[in-house]
């Protein structure tokens, strides 16, 4: 009975932080068909490259300070000192990074849109500042375990950053104009939070404290930066090589496939947000549960992903016909999200051991493999070569992360089912490369049945947990109605 209660409580906590990713993923999924009809693949490719470059400079500007804030939030006695130091340091870092962006403005602009543009550089600099402000807003709610405001903030940020600016294409269908509108909406949302929703939080940056946490913040945050940069290179190099050999159109195809595949983030983000603090706190007392969680997450992810592959033809019918080439690599890109989420459970031993430098090494090795494969495969095979490079490099990283993680903490009791499932998923994803629709669907259904049989026990347990959650919700709902009456 206690085990059932704990399981229900665990899944409730995961779900509470999954609402944000669920809603934002749904919004993104709905907007993509409209976006593909508003922007040509070439303009969409430019928008995608802007996001990619902006993510790098945002990462450099925040310099691991956000991670320091998470790390020391529970330990410091005066949060005002920590908040003030973190925000001030991030603004100083932003000013430094912005000067570098301005110095190399012509090269950066040509990399993104193929021509020199001072307007684009100003948009980029402002975007870096205000997305980092949004980052601190989100972290504040997350660390307070305020799931409602965390969800509301995430949804509003997704609307401003990823959705509403697309509609400007009704008046102007160029990437530059749309990106300008995007930055305006992000600034507007940031100002609203600074002056209305989180005024007391941000006002701490204006106070001058005698004590300071700056050295501790930088000492923890800066060493994390190399791994983040390696992650960025690993996930972005393929786009620039695609643009170099095949043009902005192909980058647009790749970006749409990548965006659609990120629907797996519904599970991934909610799980990762809750998992890390939970595992760090209970790795000794809940070792058996942690081992079970691995099998549950593989089960949920594999069934969800197979279903996405099964209905992919319907999904791509919603897109403009000019983007149909994205479907060929869509299933392969889904696998990358699965691999990453699985490695969060298999590689748990690395952060627990304190040897976090291993993560930077692993990402670096994966990055080298990815770059080599991209250079070899993309000029010849284009999109397919790009997808294969990304998946293979991720397999290398996850495998090494698992081997090292299990050396320091045994978070998985058996890998037989996991390896078998991953092989089946890779095989199913590759069907798009050589089979027409009907035989592909038949084989995918058969593989879904096989995975269901493999994880039958986990599925039965999940059904019991979900039914318990529903009964609990209905009971509360009926009780509330009685109170109202």
TrEMBL record:
Topology term for the membrane: Multi-pass membrane protein
Entry keywords, A to Z: Cell membrane, Membrane, Transmembrane, Transmembrane helix
Location(s), subcellular: Cell membrane
Protein name per UniProt: Oligosaccharide flippase family protein
Coiled-coil blocks: none
PANTHER family: O-ANTIGEN TRANSPORTER-RELATED, PST FAMILY PREDICTED COLANIC ACID TRANSPORTER
Protein origin, superkingdom: Bacteria
Claim: Transmembrane is one of the keywords in the record: yes
Annotated organism of origin: Sphaerochaeta associata
Transmembrane segments: 12-35, 47-65, 86-105, 111-130, 150-171, 177-196, 217-233, 253-275, 296-317, 329-350, 357-378, 384-403, 415-435, 441-457
């Amino acid at each position: 009975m206690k085990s059932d209660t704990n399981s229900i409580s665990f899944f409730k906590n995961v779900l509470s932080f999954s609402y944000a990713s669920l809603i934002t993923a749904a919004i993104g999924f709905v907007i993509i068909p409209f976006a593909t009809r508003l922007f040509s693949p070439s303009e969409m490719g430019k928008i995608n490259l802007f996001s990619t470059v902006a993510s790098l400079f945002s990462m450099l500007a925040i310099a691991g300070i956000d991670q320091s804030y998470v790390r020391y939030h529970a330990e410091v006695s005066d949060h005002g000192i920590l908040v003030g130091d973190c925000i001030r340091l991030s603004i100083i870092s932003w000013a430094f990074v912005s000067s570098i962006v301005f110095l190399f403005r012509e090269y950066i602009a040509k990399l993104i849109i193929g021509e020199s543009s001072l307007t684009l550089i100003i948009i980029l600099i402002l975007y870096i500042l205000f997305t980092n402000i949004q980052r601190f807003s989100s972290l504040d709610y997350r660390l307070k375990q305020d799931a409602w405001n965390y969800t509301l903030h995430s949804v509003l940020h997704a609307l401003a950053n990823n959705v509403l600016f697309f509609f400007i294409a009704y008046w102007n269908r160029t990437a530059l104009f749309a990106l300008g509108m995007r930055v305006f909406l992000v600034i507007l949302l940031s100002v609203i939070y600074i002056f209305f929703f989180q005024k007391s939080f941000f006002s701490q940056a204006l106070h001058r404290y005698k004590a300071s946490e700056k050295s501790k913040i930088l000492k923890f945050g800066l060493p994390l930066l190399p791994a983040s940069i390696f992650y960025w290179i690993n996930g972005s190099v393929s786009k620039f090589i695609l643009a170099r050999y095949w043009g902005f159109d192909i980058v647009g195809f790749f970006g749409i496939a990548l965006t659609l595949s990120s629907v797996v983030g519904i599970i991934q983000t909610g799980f990762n947000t809750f998992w890390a603090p939970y595992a760090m706190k209970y790795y000794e007392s809940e070792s058996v549960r942690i081992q079970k969680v691995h099998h549950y997450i593989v089960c949920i992810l594999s069934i969800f992903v197979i279903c996405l592959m099964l209905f992919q033809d319907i999904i791509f019918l919603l897109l403009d016909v000019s983007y149909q080439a994205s479907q060929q690599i869509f299933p392969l890109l889904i696998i990358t999200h699965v691999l990453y989420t699985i490695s969060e459970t298999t590689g748990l031993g690395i952060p627990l051991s304190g040897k976090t430098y291993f993560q930077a090494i692993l990402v670096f090795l994966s990055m080298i493999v990815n770059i080599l494969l991209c250079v070899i495969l993309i000029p010849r095979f284009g999109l397919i070569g790009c997808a294969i490079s990304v998946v293979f490099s991720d397999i290398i990283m996850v495998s090494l992360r698992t081997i090292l993680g299990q050396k320091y903490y045994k978070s998985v009791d058996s890998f037989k089912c996991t390896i078998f499932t991953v092989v089946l998923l890779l095989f199913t994803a590759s069907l798009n490369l050589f089979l027409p629709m009907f035989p592909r669907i038949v084989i995918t259904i058969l593989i879904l049945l096989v995975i269901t049989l493999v994880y039958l026990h986990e599925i039965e347990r999940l059904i019991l947990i979900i039914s318990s959650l529903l009964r609990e919700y209905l009971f509360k709902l009926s009780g509330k109605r009685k109170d109202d009456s």
